[in-house]
Amino acid sequence: MREIALSLHNLYFKYPDYPDFSSHILFDSINLEIEKGSLSILIGRPDSGKTTLSRILGGLIPRFTGGELKGEIFLNGKNITNYKPYDLIKDIGLVFQNPEEEIFTTRCDTEIAFALESLGMAKDRIAEKVDNSLGAVGMQNYKEKNPVYLSGGEKKKLLMASLFAVDPDIWVFDEVFEELDPWIRKIVLSYVVKKKKTVVILTSKWLDVYEEFADRLFILESAKLHSFTGDSYNDFSKAIRLYGLVPEKIKKPASISGERNKNAGILLKLRGLRFSYDNKDDFTVEIDSFKLVKGEITGLIGRNGSGKSTFAKILCGLLDHNNGIITDKTGSSLSPETLNRSVGYLFQNPDFQIFLPTVEEELKIGLKYLGKSVQEMDDAVSKAIRLFDLPKASSPASLISYGTKRKLQAAIYYLLHRSVIILDEADSGLSISDLVSLVNNLYSEDTALVVITHDLDTITRLADRLIFMEKGKIKKIYYQDEFTNLNEFRSSIR
Amino acid sequence: MFEDIYYPGNSIIHRYDPRMKLIVLIECVVLFFFHIPVFCLSLYLVLIMAVLILTAGLDSLLKAIKAVLPLLILVIFITPLFNRNGVPVIEILGKPVITVSGILDGLRLAVRFAGITVAFTLYFKTTNPESMVLSLRWFGISFNLSLIITISMRYIPYIMGVYRNVVDAHKLRKCCNESRVKGFVYKFKNLSPVLISVLIHSIKKIPVLAMVLEKKGLGRHNKRTSYLELKKLKYIFTDILILLAITAIIFLSLFIMDLGINFLNVL
Fold first, then answer.
1. Complex ipTM
2. How far apart (Å, rounded) are the C-alpha atoms in residues A44 and A245?
3. How far is A311 from chain B (nearest CA, A)?
4. A414 and A304 within one domain
5. Cα–Cα distance between A366 and A353 in angstroms, integer?
6. Share of chain A above pLDDT 90, in %
7. Which of A343, A355, A412 is facing B166, going by the closest CB pair?
8. Which of A48, A452, B134, B201 could cross-link to A44 by cystine, CB 3.0-4.6 Å?
C-alpha cells in the first residue's frame, strides 16, 4: 500500500491587494499527493507561484506576508495547515531560491549549527554534523569562512549542507539546482534517494540530472496543478514541451560564428589582468588575454567559485583590477567608469539590481539619464514590457517573482543599448523558453553577449564559443566545432 | 545576508575574552563621559585610535570617523553658541557670542563622541557576532534579545552594503555621453532614487529575516543549546587580570589628572 507523505486538499491562495496592484488567485483548488520516498519535480513559469507554494509548505506564508489561504495541508496524515515554521523544521526542510535571503551568520559552521541549536542538540553532536555536512558538499575547508565571501553557487551549497545536517523528512528545493555544479546536484539527489527521503523540487526548467531520479512531474500553470506519472524521461519531456516550457527548437540568433579571427568588430580587449579581493587573499583572477567581438555570444562556464562573477564585474567596471589593461578597438584604455556606461551586467542576484517602487520606474531611470522625452520613455517602456513579457508598468517591482525580475533586468539593458551585456546565471529562475527568448531579444549585430550558466545543453546551442574558467583563470576556450568534445570541462564538474 | 563590520584577525584584542572586552567597552564609554579637560580626553582618544589602527587597520578608523564627521563638525560649531560664559573670543555689540569656555565645550563633546564611536568600532571590529551573543547570554540576557541586539548592530553596515549595491546598479544605467562633472543640485537630485531603493530593500529585509529565523527554529519551546561556547572563567585568568589592570590604570590616570588640575589651580 502506498504511503502518502504530503498532501494538499483544495489549496487556495491569494496575496493581499496593494494600491495599484490587485493580486490574482495564485492557487485555485490545488490537490496534490506525494508518496513517501518519492522525488517530484514541480515545474512552472516565473510568477506561477512555485516559491509561494514552497513557503506555504514551510509554514512561512501567509504568516509573514498576509494573504488568503484556504484548504488543508497534511504531513504523514497530520493536518499541519496552521503549524508554525519552527515546529516544522524536522519535518520539512526548505532551501530558498535566493541564498542571500537565508544566510545570516558570519561563519559557515555557525550557519549550519543554528537550526541544530534550535533543536536542542548536544554540542558534540552538532560539531559532528557540521563537519559531516560540510564534507558532503565539498566545503570542509570553509568552516570558519564568512559566507559573505562565497560565490552564489557556494552559498547554495552551504544551504544544502544545512539541510544535510537537520536531515528533515521532506526536502523542498526552490530553484536550487540551476546554479550548482552537476556533481553536487548528483550528490544531493543520490543522498536523498538512498535515504528514502521525500523530495519536492520546484523549478523553472528540467535538468538532465532529474531524468535519473524523478518519479513524478507536476506542472503549475494558471493556478492549477497538472500531474504526470511518466515511465520514461520522454513522457515527462513531452509534457514539458506541451506546456511550452521548452521551445520546440532552440533558435539561435544570427551570430558571427566563424568570424572569430577578424578584429574589425572588437568591442573590448583585455591584457594581463590581475585581481584579488582585499578580504579574500586566497583567491585571484588572472586573465592573460581576452576579447569580445560584436555579434558574438560567449558562454562563461566553470565550477562554483571559479571566478566567473568576479570576472564579469571587472568587465563592467564594478571591480577595479589591480594590474592589466582593458582597451577598446583602438587600443585606448577604458576606465571602470567608462565600462560602467558601456557594459550591461545582469547581477546574479536580481534583488541587488531591482530596487525602485514600480516596473515602470525601473525601466525609465536609465532612459532619464539618457535624456529621453516623456513620450519616448513611455513608448520604450511599453515595447519592453511587451517584448520581455513583463507585468504591467505600475506593478510593484519588489513583489514580482525572482524569474520575472531577471526578465526585468534584461529589459533595462535592452532599452539602454549597451554594446556588451553580461548575463550572470541568467537561466536561474527562468524556463529554457524564457532564457532563449531573453537572449534573442538582447542580441544584435552590434552587441556582444556573455552568458554565465551551468546549463551546458542550452548554452552549447546558443553560444559561438565557451570560456571555461577554473580557479580564477581561463582554462580553455571551446569554439563551436569543439562543442561536441567538452571532456576537460565535463570532467572538472563531475 | 548581512555584510559584517567584524574584521577577522588574530590580534591580542581579537583573542581577548568577549565578556571582559564588553566590560572594558563600558568602562571606556564611562571614561569619555567624565568631565575632564579636553587635552586629557584627547589623550585617551589618541590611545584608543592607535589600538584600533594596530588591530583593524587605518581604514577602519577612517571609515568610523568619516561616518560621524558631519556630526562632529556640527557639534564643534553649534555648542559654543549655547555656552557664552568666560573669556570672550568674538563679541557683537559688546555681547560675547563665542567664548573660550564654549569652544572647549564643543571640542569636549566632539572628542567624547569620537571616543565612544572609536571604542564601539574597536569592539565590533574585533568581536565576531557569535561571541557577542555568547557574552550577552553569559551576562544573563536571553538568546532572543542577544540576537536582536547583535542583528541591530549589524543592520547599519548592512544598509551601507545595500547602499553600495544600489549605487553600483545605478552606475550601470548611466549613459556614455553624460558629462562627468556635475553640480551639487544634480548629485542631490540623483541621490533620491538611490535612497528610495535603499529604503525599500532595507524594509523588505525585515520580514524575510523573521521568516528565516523561524525557519531555522527560532521560537521553539525546547531548550536551546550552543555549538560555540565561551571558555570557563578559570581558563581566562589572564584576561581577568588584564581587565583589572585596565580598570586600575583608568582610575589611576583619573586620580593623577585630578591631582594635576588641583596643583595647577593652586599655582
1. 0.83
2. 8
3. 16
4. yes
5. 13
6. 50
7. A355
8. A48
